[in-house]
């Protein structure tokens, strides 16, 4: 019986997944299209990401948040918008919301540090997700 209990304990230890340590995502990144810089920093007990620089404008896109569902917000400038909101460490990723000014929608997001100091940002609606990689700003 002792041998069986010891074997079960060893098997459980081997099968248990190691906890993933919380990794910092604070820093400044360039979006996957090279249009904006986003700075990720603490905001209260969470992390947020704000557009802190317009690198280049998309052809035909205005300077304001014209696609926002809320008409009262459509005049606000893109520069300064918080696009990553309420990111909290949970089960190996930073989870919260991402706002996309290109369509005015907010999505569920998972954010993880990636290779070379970049950031992997996954936005999801139901089971459909799209991942973008934001490179570290120079």
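Sequence proposed for the structure above (138 residues):
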């Amino acid at each position: 019986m002792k041998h069986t209990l010891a074997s079960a304990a060893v098997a459980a230890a081997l099968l248990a997944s190691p906890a993933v340590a919380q990794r910092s995502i604070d820093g400044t990144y360039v979006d996957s299209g090279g249009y904006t810089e986003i700075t990720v920093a603490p905001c209260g007990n969470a992390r947020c990401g704000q557009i802190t620089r317009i690198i280049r404008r998309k052809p035909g896109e205005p300077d304001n948040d014209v696609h926002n569902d809320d008409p009262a917000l459509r005049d606000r400038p893109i520069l300064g918008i918080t696009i990553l909101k309420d990111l909290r460490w949970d089960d190996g990723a930073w989870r919260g919301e991402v706002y996309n000014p290109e369509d005015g929608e907010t999505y569920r997001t998972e954010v993880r540090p990636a290779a070379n100091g970049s950031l992997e940002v996954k936005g999801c609606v139901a089971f459909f997700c799209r991942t973008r990689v934001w490179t570290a700003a120079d």
